[in-house]
Amino acid sequence: xxxxxxxxxxxxxxxxxxxxxxLADISAAxxxxxxxxxxxxxxxxxxxxxxxxxxxxxxALTGLRPIVHSYAPFLIERAYEQLKIDLDHQxxxxxxxxxxxxxxxxxxxxxxxxxxxxxxxxxxxxxxVHVPGHPDEVPALLRDAVAGxxxxxxxxxxxxxxxxxxxxxxxxxxxxxxxxxxLLVAVGPVLDAALAAVxxxxxxxxxxHRPRPFDTAxxxxxxxxxxxxxxxxxxxxxxxxxxxxxADRPHRLLALGVGRKxxxxxxxxxxxxxxxxxDAAGLRRSVGAFLSPAxxxxx
Amino acid sequence: MTxxxxxxxxxxxxxxxxxxxxxLPEPVAPLFERVRAGREFGPNVRSTVDVLWxxxxxxxxxxxxxxxDPERDRFLLSKGHAVAGYYAVLAAKGFVPADWLDDQGGPxxxxxxxxxxxxxPGVEIGSGSLGHGLGLGVGTVLGLRAQGLLTPRxxxxxxxxxxxxxxxHEAIAYAGATxxxxxxxxxxxxxxxxxxxxxxxxxxxxVNGWTAATVDGRDHDALHTALTxxxxxxxxxxxxIVDQGE
Lengths: 299, 246
Known about the structure:
The structure holds two protein chains of two kinds.
Chain A: H1 2-15, E1 19-23, H2 32-37, E2 42-44, H3 49-61, E3 65-71, H4 72-78, H5 80-89, E4 95-99, H6 117-122, E5 128-130, H7 138-147, E6 152-155, E7 172-175, E8 183-187, H8 191-197, E9 204-208, H9 216-222, E10 226-234, H10 239-245, E11 252-258, H11 269-275, H12 280-291
Parallel strand pairs in A: 1-2, 1-3, 3-4, 4-6, 5-6, 8-9, 8-10, 10-11
Antiparallel strand pairs in A: 7-9
Helix pairs in contact in A: 1-7, 3-5, 8-12
Chain B: H1 29-36, H2 43-46, H3 49-59, E1 74-77, H4 83-92, H5 133-146, E2 154-159, H6 166-177, E3 183-189, H7 202-206, E4 211-216, H8 220-227, E5 236-241
Parallel strand pairs in B: 1-2, 2-3, 3-5, 4-5
């Protein structure tokens, strides 16, 4: 996904003089050719994340459309007040693009993990959040975000599904178990594991790469009584949205995702997927318990 | 420069002493009193009025008619609590109607205890939380430059205690290293930083390649000289010393 981001951003800088890129050393080498061509619009402030977002706010105040990039913990957590003040409170927008989603950099340890990023952005107002599930989804999402006016957060990961699923962010039906069946909504790269987990269960599966704004109309159209959320960041991040959307209906909600605890373990991203119960077997255990007694097998 | 003090500033040069505060600039005084409305303000509110007046009266190329002109100078009030004098100066220069000054901070007022750029004409940034203005100012200079707007100058007003915030030092180092010649920082130094700035605030800037002038913050001619002393190749800082506690 990072490569697609770099290629698309390099093209956008050439196509649209309103576009600017702000870096804090991360990925600076990959953008060196773009920096040579557009020295006034490719700006590397060094390892200074408060300035990274402050500069983006200043650029936006002059009418430019900044793309701001770093590792997720540094981009969202370290400079969080700058998101609130230097962008939102000034009434200007930017497109934030992170790498290092949740536990992508598992061997680096807690300092480089940021499962809370989407939840933190969700505590701001009016942001669009994209969590692509495949590298091929990235270019269109990035182009749409840059063409827009408000603020957007693109959360890029090394984890992905086997194939891209495009669309505009509305819930996309991947597997239909019929009216009234439990609905599982998978966000971004957790789709394949979720599909495998419920392969023999009568569960409808829908996909989105856009948890904010969440497609509540699509949710209401697809949901029966039981809803299962599977998100690749903090478990429960979208619970409030789903609960509010279904407030007038009796329903049950199971929200799966990354746990809050610092596991103090290294290993690989796949190891952490398993430890957080987000692999197919772990999801199957959680969904099975939630739906117990299990619906009749399909077919 | 008439009263420029050596850039070493506080520590080697005694700050000015004004046993009785000099009067406010004449056009501002009644408007300041109208904002104050009988309330007791801390002396730090008063200490910023002189430099604000010199900026708006003699330096900044901005009027109510050009408040949205891309070619205008930008003034960013980073120490957003210096707001009574700011509103009074904006009213004196016609950016806001004088009757907006009444009931400042009230439920129907557009003028909060910290300014909001979306509510007050002429206000370039909303501020209040310290340490945000200089980074926004750096971004503004870069954005103007990227669009070929090389005439406008960007002024950011801070306090010496505000320099405690680390975000300032990210901006100071970067602006100096990249030679942002269209940026001027103004530090109103009332000696309020809890742990002080040995050698003076200007040293934090000059070590990063800025030019600097440290002056009596009440002396309008000295302020004017210092505020026009940039070499346009490097960022410039003016340290305006006012009495301690002001």
